[in-house]
Amino acid sequence: MKLNLLTRQFCKAVTVLGIALVLLLPAKQLLAEEIPNYAAEILNIYPHDSAAFTQGLTVYDGQLYEGTGQYGESTLRRVDLESGELLQRHNLESSYFGEGITVMDDKIYQLTWRSNVGFVYELDTFNQLGSFYLPGEGWGITHDGEHLIVSDGSAYLRFLDPETLQEVSRLEVRDAQGAVNNLNELEYINGEVWANIWYRDYLVRIDPQSGVVNSLVDLSNLNSNRRRFDDVLNGIAWDAENERLFVTGKLWPRLYEIRVLD
To answer: What is the pTM of this model?
Structure first.
């Protein structure tokens, strides 16, 4: 029995070490050589609440909206982009771990992690309009103007009807090495789905018709001074009106406006 305990402890240590080593690898070593690997230029840096465990980020009508996680700390927020000032806040019940958010047709959709439920809010007031059942885990959410697009930590994107909130199709995301797992926060940008990969310092750009990863964006130059192991990149917001791209991470003190050098 003592030997089994030591074995389990050894395996746990090896797993943690393995994850740490993966985090140190350059992005271009993690995906196939055939996939273009783009760098990003930092255009502006804005303050970000370092206590916000960012799970979702989106810009709508010039306003920045954010969803945060952790039990007892999960929120929906409207934030002044340039100052980082909190303008509006809705606290989730402590039994919910907040996940991704998106805005579609003046409604905010917010997922939760393992509660099999998502919430729908009125954009202006944050009043809850309803909720919906979501099988499996909720991670990231965006939309293409026709469907809500949801990730659950697997290699699949699920497409939901925004009226019935039922799944109508799903798509496996793949690169030349196979299925791309741990799809997290999502954003729909110029006909592509952009996604964070949990514990990775890059974004993948996905063809929503085929599921093929057509390129990645290396963001390993951002936030090099992490305080905790899970202070990882998470949060993509696209300001379509002004063609500006913003990224941040869980508990990061900064929000970055970037330009992809492609």
So the answer is: 0.86
The span from the CA of 71 to the CA of 52, in Å, is 12
Alpha-carbon distance of 162 to 146, in angstroms, equals 8
Residue 29 DSSP label = G
Contact assessment for residue 157 and residue 151, using Cβ atoms and an 8 Å cutoff: yes
3-state secondary structure of 6: helix
* CB within 8 Å of 186: residues ≥ 6 apart: 100, 102, 140, 141, 142, 149, 150, 151, 157, 193, 194, 195, 196, 236
Helix, strand, coil abundance in the chain, percent, nearest 5: 10, 50, 40
The H-assigned helical ranges of 130-185 are none
Please state, in angstroms and rounded to a whole number, the distance separating the CA atoms of residues 153 and 158: 11
Question: How does pLDDT run along the chain (262 residues), one tens digit per residue?
Answer: 333 434 344 343 433 344 444 444 444 444 445 789 999 999 999 999 999 999 999 999 989 999 999 999 999 999 999 999 999 999 999 999 999 999 999 999 999 999 999 999 999 999 999 999 999 999 999 999 999 999 999 999 999 999 999 999 999 999 989 999 999 999 999 999 999 999 999 999 999 999 999 999 999 989 656 677 778 999 999 999 999 999 999 999 999 999 999 8
Q: What length is written for the chain?
A: 262
Residues in CB range of 18: below 8 A, 6 or more apart = none
Instruction: Name all domains of the chain by residue range, CATH numbers in brackets.
Output: 31-260 (2.120.10.30)
